[in-house]
Amino acid sequence: MDVIPLGAGFGAELRGVSMIDVASDHAAYLAVRAAFEEHSIVLLRDQHIEDDIQVAFSRAFGPLERSKVGSLGQGSFYGRVTNMNAEGKPVPPDHRQIQVARANQLWHTDSSFIATPAMASVLSARIIPPTGGETEFTSTRLAWERLSPDRQAQLRDLTVSHSYANSRDQIHPELMTPEQREAMPAVRWRMTWRNPVNGRRALYIASHAGSIEGMGDNEGKALLAELMAEATAPGRTYEHTWRAGDVVMWDNRATMHRGRPFPLDQVRSMIRTTISATDEAGLDAVRPDRARQAA
Ligand code: OGA
Ligand code: MN
């Protein structure tokens, strides 16, 4: 396997390894896992992409998350990120799926708003529009490492509240159904996530993060906005332009991402599988009720 950095200081393309290799060969899995822990984003190109293969690949990394209430593919292992209707045509611009796509264009990390957040997400391109529709990433590990030691000491153990409503309400007050609001109360996490393999910390923030414990609403939102802006400033991101056969896997503990706009009269269709975090992935130390951890 060859590891070719994507050029932004994080992320790497892996050559000479396939999704099927990872699903069927433990040594291949270990090599990809090590690259994932190190680079936070791994890209596999020219893959033979099928739902079953994507699930088998994803399962090698840990337990899979089921799609949330009210989403496309609800209750299955597949999340559909698409503007395509049942006839294979783009939905009209005022359709709910377009609002959902706009919410996906806010910087976020996946599933930070549920009780068991996501360690990693695997996204495959199924139908790619002729222009636009890139996915942009940033490293919240590098964002953390750029902060001064004093600043790190102030921030490290803050507790942040995350909710799906916080990101959806930025797009439209009725984007979430009453059923979804009921099903998804806010959850709380430490502001940093320590990777147990290499000990490197990352900011754990996102558009789902709405308030900081012990701070007023405005103060908390301002601090979150400042950290988000620092993490996503020009020159600090990697924008992935999709090709047919691409699969990207990212570390939700150490990155944020956002979808980029594309012409609404074009179809864009992606399939995501999601791997849940476990205590081995460092989840235990992110829980605010745990005692303060050693550096
Ligand atoms: C996702 C996501 C962005 C995109 O699948 O979690 O945010 O570009 N996707 O489709
Ligand atoms: Mn996402």
Give a description of the structure.
- The chain has helices at 19-24, 26-39, 51-59, 96-104, 140-146, 149-155, 164-168, 178-183, 217-231, 283-286, and strands at 2-5, 12-15, 41-44, 79-82, 118-127, 135-139, 159-162, 187-190, 192-194, 201-203, 209-212, 237-240, 247-251, 255-259, 269-276.
- It has 295 residues and is of the alpha+beta class.
- The strands form 4 sheets. A 7-stranded mixed beta sheet has the order 1-2-3-13-5-15-4, covered by helices on one side. Strands 12-6-14 form a 3-stranded antiparallel beta sheet. It has a 3-stranded antiparallel beta sheet with strand order 8-7-11.
- A hairpin with a 6-residue loop joins strand 9 (192-194) and strand 10 (201-203).
- The chain is globular, with a radius of gyration of 18 Å.
- 38% of the residues are buried.
- The mean pLDDT is 94.
- The structure holds N-oxalylglycine and manganese (II) ion.
